[in-house]
Amino acid sequence: MNRLRKSSSRWGNISSTGEWVSSRSVQWLRSVASSIREDTADFILPPQEGLSTAGQLVLARSFTARTKPYIERIADQINATYENGCYDACAVLIRRLVETLIIECHEAKGISDRIKDRDGNFLMLRDLANAVVNEASWNIGRNSKVGLKKLKDKGDLSAHNRRYLAHRTDIDDIKEPLRVVVQELILLAGIQRAK
Fold first, then answer.
1. In whole angstroms, what is the distance from residue 55 CA to residue 68 CA?
2. How many whole angstroms separate alpha carbon 93 and alpha carbon 78?
């Protein structure tokens, strides 16, 4: 092994016992390793659409069940990122869910043009939150108004502050506002089908 430390370029020609092996053997071993990696990828990696999480530690599945598949998947990913300690990702996904639900509310009432810029793109979360709070087509509750601000602030820190790293307690602090906001926006949008 001393020879290996002296010359790392010889690594491809030294076996684990320190004996020289042919370059043809090394190529064959690399080929076998590559084939094994390709053959097992389907077993090792999660499916393309992701996995459902077993737990519901942030947002109970019942709040988004029977809505729209992409809303259910975002909620599932919120729980999965929390369970795996990816708290910044969790906060950003919470932000995304809130944005999506605000858009759903406006689309359900046929007033989505009110939350688009002159190029037809949806507004940023700050403006979406202001629009949903000030919309005359519905009366959003006081707790949802307060909750929207908390969710936006936490999501903004995780998405835009390069030195901020969310901790579990940061997500724990916004679980109740998330539940209140999600439940109200889903009801306002009328997107949850009956059982």
1. 20
2. 6
Question: What's the pLDDT tens digit per position in 8-47?
Answer: 444 455 555 556 667 777 788 788 888 887 777 767 777 7
Nearest to 75 by CA among 92, 93, 55: 93
- In eight-state DSSP terms, residue 11 is G
Per-residue pLDDT reduced to its tens digit, 111-150: 999 999 999 999 999 999 999 999 999 999 999 999 999 9
Sequence ranges of the domains in the chain: 2-44, 61-189
| Closest C-alpha among 183, 34, 160, 155 to residue 92 | 155
Q: How many residues are present in the chain? A: 195
CATH topology of domain 61-189: Four Helix Bundle (Hemerythrin (Met), subunit A) (1.20.120)
Cα distance between residue 140 and residue 122, in whole Å: 20
Distance from C-alpha of 82 to C-alpha of 174, rounded to nearest angstrom? 12
